[in-house]
Amino acid sequence: MAQNQVRISAKVLDAKTLKPLVAAVVSIQNTNFTQLTNSEGIVVFESIPSADYLLLFHSQGYKDALYPVSIQNTLALDLGTILLELDQVADQQAAVIQLFEDDLTDDNSSSENTSGLLQSSRDAFQQAAAFNWGQARFRIRGLDSENATTMINGVTMNKLYDGRPNWNNWGGLNDATRNQEFSIGTAPSDYTFGGILGTQQINTRASIYRKGNRITLSGTNTNYNGRIMATHASGMSNSGWAYVISAGKRYAQEGHFEGTNYDANSLFLSIEKRLNDQHSINITGFYTPNERGKNSPNTAEVTNLTNETYNSYWGYQNGKKRNARVRTVDEPIVMLNHYFKINDHTNLNSAVLYQFGKIGNSNIDYQNANSPDPTYFRKMPSYYTSLYAADNGEFSGEFTPDYANAEKSRLAFLANSQIDWEAMYRANRNPVIDEHSNIIGYEAAQSHYVLYEDRADDKTIAFNSNFNSQVSENLIMNAGISYRDLKSHNYQKLLDLLGGAFFEDIDGFYSGSQAQSDLNNPNRQVKVGDTYGYNYKLSAAVLEAFTQFKFSYNTIDFYLAQSFSRTNYQREGLYKNGIYPTISFGKSQKLNFENFGFKGGMLFKISGKQSLNLNAAHLTKAPNLRSSFSNARLNNTVVDGLESEILNSVDATYVFRTPKLKTRLTAYYSTIKDATKISFFYAEGIFDNEAGYSNTNAFVSQTLTGLDRKNLGAELSFEYQINPTLKTSFSMAYGQFIYDSNPNVGINNDAVATVENTNPSFDFGTALLKNYKQAGMPQQAYSLGLEYRDPKYWWIGTNVNYLAENYIDVSPISRTNRFYTNPASGFPFPEATEERAAELLKQEKFDPVSLLNLIGGKSWRIKGKFLGLFVSINNVLDSQYKTGGYEQARNANFRQLNQDVSSGTPSFGNKYFYGYGRTYFVNLNFSF
Questions:
Q1: Alpha-carbon distance values, 45 to 48, 343, 402, 520 (Å)
Q2: pLDDT greater than 60 at residue 115
Q3: How many Cα atoms occupy the beta-carbon half-sphere of 735 within 13 Å?
Q4: ∠ CA 450-252-418 to the nearest 5 degrees?
Q5: Any bridge partners for residue 477, and if so which?
Q6: What confidence score (pLDDT) does residue 49 get?
Q7: Shortest CA distance to 392 belongs to which of 831, 685, 749, 881?
Q8: Tens of pLDDT along 215-228?
Q9: 227: which DSSP letter?
Q10: Cβ-count burial of 501 within 10 angstroms (0-12 exposed, 13-18 middle, 19+ buried)?
Q11: Is 662 helix (H, G, I), strand (E, B) or coil?
Q12: Are 815 and 837 in contact (CB under 8 A)?
């Protein structure tokens, strides 16, 4: 490298308005040189050694620009004006996969995981993952969002209950949450140690928003139909004040799936006061109340009788569709931030957050009545076509299908395929009869059916302080400490008596004192607004600290980071449950976990165009609150063998970038060991008659411990600018995500609990899950795209996508040795051969899916104002495909499963979720 020192300068402007872009980041690739543009959009680099470089110009909401620079025999180089175009793809609907968060409702499924980093970065692969593959539930590196850290202004937003962020808390505020920083995998973040998937930091400091107004109108046929959003940013005034306000609404009477109503309101406010050159304070508030109707998973039988958009959760009431399973989220957030610029090289940023509110999930409860579910197994034709006679000694009974009743059942279902709200109202009322025995009206009686919701009322207080210092020319130090405290009240709330007068607070599956929800207040008659069924509090406190040292030199960068955390959990029962009178009321033992993490990485700067990046991490993580108590609704019992998870991750990335060609190739390997998973379901033929009780069927809780996962694969991002207007891209994700252990299975049967036996847990041994595929996402994905951008500010693009290797979520209990044992005798089933077992237990693989998408946009300048249009059509060919599903665990032994499957029309077949068909998204925004 020559010794001449050169000055490089440029002016960065908005391509349409020709106004300066302030605080745009300009970096010389694979060097330590980075600068921000000033108030006039000018950037200057001093004393740059002569060489060939690539300059990257980046500003939030704009497309990156990469310029080659060759410095030879000159002392100063002025690049002139650099024009950055608005990135209209940012208007694309990336929230499609968010609504899958809690759609799966059967408790024996784990497929409710959401995708991790939902927003796109500048990488073609990240854009494909968010926009093209998200509709098929693709997850980056096969990891869900509890392995990524989502932050707002430096405060971690992952819930302590399940480790996942609740996107609904800031949903519908796209303008307000545009300012984001990402680190992928275990790459370093300035704000936290992070997880093995990455870190997402959302910055809502008022002064960083570009001054102006923006109104957005959107239409779609996905989870909502219409959206309106308005945002105003004041910019920083001469008196040191800045504020941003944004409001929006999304609405649908019915989304893509039948009966899925949607109503979401969004309000955001950020106010900053610059006290002086060193201190600023900022207050941020989010309020995004929303509710949406859920859609049901369905068996193949149900789908064949109806269609892929069928939803069993709704029915007509007074001519209007009413969904019984509605999710409501109402959790305001208030945050105070203090920004302290100690000197030009050192900053200390601190935050305090308070979040409160409720999450509710409604459902129908019933006593001494038939199930209101129109797809209840006894109402389906398969119930009659899969009948077998009673066992003949140790041998299976004969196949005895009843086709006549099956046909009657089919016709009855087609005639009444939705919830019958009117019938439930009638069941809750008694007729009023006159002296002539004529019915003259109806009066409210004891309700047999009611609508209730599972409620979680949370209060979270969080504190965070982050220290950042440029210690020397080659060293940056980050350090942070945070504390989060959760108080969560969980209970069952009665919403609607459905025409009745009261509902008995008992469990109809039990008798005597065991039927009582609360022995301290037995035989209660509850009404609307009352708490019943279960009632308890959870508390959690987490203290975390991290340090990070980033070293930067001419040809190599490297970093080292360490973390420590201390976690405490406790349950407090507010009801003395009749099944567990001695261990349900009052406080549980305190659970304590201490965890550590270490990670490091190196960046080798091969040249101005090439780099090689290596990262590795080892950390332990406390189990989440959800997985710590085996049946928190009923008692204080802690999961046996509960341990911290152990996570390991390594990845290597090669990057090659020129102004025309941008490519990235990443290989990764990660393991998660000693995970815990809890689920609830009804199982038939699960318990051994020899154990002393005649009922071999039971509603049980299942706990898996020692569950290991292994994820390995590769990512490819390729982008080539064919000419100034035409660009092509190719993205690939190839993964192998498997279970890497045979976890232990514990089954808890409340029905046999006694005062003497407060822990009716049965060790079912190990489930042979090793090498089964992790469920709920395609493990391979490919995308080929072509984009044309016209100089007159319109563009159009298309991409074709292929997603494969998506698998059903398997039932662990069917992979234990108990599966092969006849519960009536304790002997193995004589027909249980290895060959037939392999057929029955083979994990279902979904068909691969091809998706063709079209996108386009146009922008206009009208008297200094700007109008932008964005249009996308996803799944143009209207492909029907499964996005996830699970094996029903009801058939808990070989004979029952074999009989059900052998009938050809299984009564308890796998349940599936389906992707959207052809959908559109139209976005019109006006900026002024």
A1: 7, 21, 84, 75
A2: no
A3: 31
A4: 40
A5: 469, 549
A6: 86
A7: 831
A8: 999 999 999 999 99
A9: E
A10: middle
A11: strand
A12: no
User: In sequence order, what E strands does 424-530 have?
Assistant: 429-433, 439-444, 449-472, 475-496, 503-504, 525-526
For 131-150, the pLDDT digits (tens) are 899 889 999 999 999 999 99
Instruction: Give bridge partners of residue 44 from the DSSP assignment.
Output: 9
- Pairing verdict, β 76-84 and 5-14: parallel
Q: How far apart are CA 790 and CA 792, in angstroms?
A: 5
Token pair recorded at residue 460: 């979270």
Residue type, 482: S
Q: Average pLDDT, stretch 63-69?
A: 85
Concatenating the DSSP letter of every residue in 705-748 gives EEEEEEEEEEEEEEEEEEETTEEEEEEEEEEEEEE-S--EEEEE
- CB of 8 closer than 8 Å to CB of 69: yes
Strand, coil or helix: 124:
helix
The residue among 785, 696, 806 whose CA lies nearest residue 732 is: 785
Return the structure tokens found at 681: 């379901």
Which pLDDT band holds residue 879 (cuts at 50, 70, 90)? very high
Residue 356 has pLDDT above 50, yes or no: yes
pTM confidence score: 0.90
Backbone dihedral region for residue 86 (phi beyond 0: left; psi -120 to 50: alpha; all else: beta): beta
Which of 1-5, 428-432, 600-604, 626-630 shows the lowest mean pLDDT across its residues? 1-5
Chain-centroid distance of CA 548 in Å reads 28
Contact 479, 467 (CB under 8 A): yes
Nearest to 375 by CA among 737, 594, 105, 751: 105
d(CA 369, CA 504): 13
pLDDT digits (tens, 9 = 90+) for 380-397: 999 999 999 999 888 999
**How many other C-beta atoms are found inside a 10 Å radius of the C-beta of residue 503?**
27
Most confident of 71-85, 94-108, 334-348: 334-348
For the stretch 453-472, pLDDT in tens is 999 999 999 999 999 999 99
Cα–Cα distance between 229 and 180 in angstroms, integer?
19
Between the alpha carbon of residue 778 and those of residues 468, 618, 710, 737, 806, the distances in Å are 39, 26, 15, 10, 4
Mean pLDDT of 347-376: 96
Tokens 């970038």 belong to residue? 657
Instruction: Label residues 594-607 b or e (16+ Cβ within 10 Å = b).
Output: ebebebbbebebee
pLDDT for residue 378 = 94
Taking CA atoms, 680 is separated from 171, 517, 578, 599, 660, in Å, by 30, 18, 19, 37, 54
Q: Are 169 and 333 in contact (CB under 8 A)?
A: yes
Q: Which residue has the higher pLDDT, 775 or 39?
A: 775
542 close to 566: Cβ distance less than 8 angstroms: yes
Mean of the pLDDT values across residues 35-51?
A: 89
Short-list 360, 202, 181, 222, CA closest to 286: 202
- What is the average pLDDT score of the chain? 91
Contact 413, 381 (CB under 8 A): yes
Residue 309: closest CA among 916, 920, 919? 916
- Do you know the residue count of the chain? 928
**What is the radius of gyration, based on Cα positions, of the chain?**
30
Please choose, from the candidates 356, 361, 689, the residue with its C-alpha nearest in 3D space to the C-alpha of residue 493. 361
Find the farthest-apart pair of alpha carbons in the chain and give their distance in angstroms, rounded: 113
Q: What SS3 class is residue 410?
A: helix
3-state secondary structure of 403: helix
> Which one-letter amino acid corresponds to residue 270?
S
**Cα separations (Å) of 395 from 125, 388, 416, 823, 828?**
56, 12, 38, 13, 11
Torsion 794-796-95-661 (CA) sign: negative
* Nearest alpha-carbon partner for 220 in 864, 874, 749: 874
Of 630, 747, 644, the closest CA to residue 696 belongs to 747
